[in-house]
């Protein structure tokens, strides 16, 4: 469907831009991951940018939904420009992934500060958009401890410069910003030697170009050609062999992640990436910046108004977290080791171990399931509630599996793009990789149950895919907030029963809701019921459901597993 252009930058334009930017990054994600060579070819940048914008778009949609719900029986109310811009910035901040995502979050925050400066203004014009882009570029550069030219920061500054030279409506300014960004992106190989050697442009800058192309589409209804305005073509889909890339000796791991925006070119680097959200006062954050800068590199601290996103590469991860504790309250802490045992970093001291023929790499939502999958021979990546893994973590798991052939089980519909990026990166490293689009851990269990490493690869993938597809999945969880669902409006604290991803039951009792869900699933037939209990599931719910199956469905077997801290109270699978 053709996009209806927005005349002014108002709340609807913010919503439209977020949606179009998410679509654009979804299209370009694999391309961006593939050209990510600074400081290592690890395939995270496109996925991290996608997840950051996805969080921003979700926050904006929630603001619109809240206003529509609050209008009652009257005409639907729309949020103000300030409401939408602040939601966009906040969503990006709390969902920022990797260094490129953190910098993009600061760019959006800088724009939001200008767009929401006058809370009563319903919209802004081209002049206001130009000021927003300028402030965004400047604030992002200030957030990076040691900026390096030839990165996303250079592209953002060039876009802002071009926008300031334009005169006209929002469409005119957006086109100018996009043209400036394209030209700057084409110049990045001449600014960073590692990009020139690999024959690619900067991955973070390429992502920003996609976001600015979505801004042009928002105001003109037309998506510009990638390099048509720059006057200089650049390698949009270059594929880089790892052997051709100069890497940090201590950082050649997928989790090291992408275009960092600062740091040396090809010299040794720290062993850990530390990321966390931080509630702290401005004065405490100023001290935190100084301390973290002394501990490591690639330091980016973005945010404000009491909430910050902290990203740094260090050798002492504990000290980086302790610094956050001293500054305020850190949470959503993520520490990633930069794979010292990886083939890119290993010295010649010992011969590499022989690869196995085939492995399964699976994302699992709880420690209990991680143990279950590991017992079945899978290499696991733990997905903590609210913290989905990045593609770099999946690539690291693929490397850890050390196999010639790998089957990926994302076990979550939202991880499809992430897993696809990991599979693509694995293929560039000579690994035969297949993605089975499992949407729940119970589908992954079904796939793993029929996995036979001795079978031909294609036959094994088909059998696993068939088993996963024949498994319906459900979960029982507690609503965190009021929301519209397929079954009506739920309130915070309500028990929700979701079947195949859609809310089918809204209730107040976990056991009752779980029984209703199970009965609906078995009404379509089934031979095996799989129950995965979370730590907070009520005592006796599994035995109640098992008894219910025995009484009403004589030919159906039931198996029960402990999932640990998996987010949902209960996962249900019916094969």
UniProtKB/TrEMBL annotation:
Q: What is this protein called?
A: Dihydroxyacetone kinase
The record, for InterPro entries, names:
DegV_domain_contain (IPR050270), DhaL_dom (IPR004007), DhaL_dom_sf (IPR036117), FakA-like_C (IPR033470), FakA-like_M (IPR048394), YloV-like (IPR019986)
Annotated DhaL domain ranges read 12-217
Q: Which UniProt keywords apply?
A: Kinase, Transferase
Q: Which organism is it from?
A: Streptomyces asoensis
Entry keyword annotation includes Transferase: yes
Molecular function (GO) terms for this protein are:
kinase activity
Q: Which domain of life is it from?
A: Bacteria
């Amino acid at each position: 469907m053709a996009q209806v252009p927005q005349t002014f930058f108002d709340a609807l334009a913010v919503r439209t831009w977020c949606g179009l930017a998410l679509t654009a990054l979804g299209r370009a994600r694999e391309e961006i991951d593939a050209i990510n060579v600074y400081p290592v070819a690890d395939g995270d940048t496109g996925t991290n940018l996608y997840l950051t914008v996805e969080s921003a778009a979700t926050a904006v949609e929630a603001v619109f939904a809240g206003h529509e719900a609050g209008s009652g029986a009257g005409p639907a109310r729309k949020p103000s420009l300030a409401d939408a811009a602040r939601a966009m910035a906040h969503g990006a901040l709390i969902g920022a992934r990797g260094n490129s995502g953190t910098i993009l979050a600061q760019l959006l925050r800088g724009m939001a500060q200008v767009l929401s400066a006058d809370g009563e203004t319903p919209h802004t014009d081209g002049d206001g958009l130009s000021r927003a882009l300028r402030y965004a570029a400047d604030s992002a550069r200030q957030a990076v401890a040691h900026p390096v030219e030839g990165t996303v920061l250079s592209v953002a500054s060039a876009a802002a410069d071009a926008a300031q030279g334009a005169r006209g409506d929002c469409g005119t300014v957006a086109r100018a910003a996009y043209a400036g960004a394209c030209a700057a992106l084409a110049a990045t190989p001449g600014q960073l030697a590692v990009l020139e050697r690999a024959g690619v442009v900067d991955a973070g800058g390429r992502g920003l170009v996609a976001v600015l192309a979505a801004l042009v589409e928002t105001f003109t209804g037309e998506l510009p050609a990638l390099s048509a305005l720059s006057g200089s073509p650049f390698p949009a889909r270059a594929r880089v062999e790892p052997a051709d890339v100069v890497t940090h000796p201590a950082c050649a791991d997928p989790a090291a992640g992408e275009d960092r925006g600062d740091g040396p070119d090809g010299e040794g680097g720290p062993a850990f990436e530390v990321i966390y959200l931080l509630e702290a006062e401005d004065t405490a954050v100023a001290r935190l910046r100084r301390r973290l800068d002394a501990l490591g590199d690639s330091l980016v601290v973005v945010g404000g108004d009491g909430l910050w996103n902290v990203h740094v590469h260090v050798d002492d991860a504990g000290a980086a977290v302790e610094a956050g504790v001293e500054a305020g309250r850190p949470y959503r802490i993520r520490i990633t080791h930069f794979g010292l045992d990886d083939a890119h970093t290993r010295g010649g001291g010992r011969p590499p171990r022989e690869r196995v023929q085939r492995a399964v790499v699976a994302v699992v939502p709880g420690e209990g399931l991680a143990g279950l999958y590991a017992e079945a021979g899978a290499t696991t990546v733990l997905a903590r509630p609210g913290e989905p893994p990045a593609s770099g973590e999946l690539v690291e798991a693929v490397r850890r599996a050390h196999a010639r052939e790998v089957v990926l089980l994302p076990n979550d519909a939202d991880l499809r793009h992430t897993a696809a990026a990991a599979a693509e990166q694995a293929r560039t490293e000579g690994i035969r990789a297949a993605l089975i689009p499992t949407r729940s851990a119970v589908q992954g269990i079904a796939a793993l149950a029929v996995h036979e490493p001795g079978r031909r690869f294609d036959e094994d993938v088909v059998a696993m895919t068939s088993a996963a597809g024949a498994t319906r999945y459900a979960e029982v969880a507690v609503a965190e907030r009021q929301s519209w669902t397929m079954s009506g409006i739920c309130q915070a604290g309500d028990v929700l029963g979701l079947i195949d991803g859609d809310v089918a039951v809204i209730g107040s009792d976990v056991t009752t809701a779980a029984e209703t869900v199970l009965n609906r699933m078995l009404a379509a037939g089934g031979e095996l019921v799989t129950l995965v209990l979370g730590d907070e599931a009520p005592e006796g719910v599994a035995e109640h459901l098992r008894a219910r199956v025995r009484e009403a469905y004589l030919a159906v077997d039931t198996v029960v597993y402990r999932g640990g801290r998996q987010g949902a109270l209960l996962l249900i699978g019916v094969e």
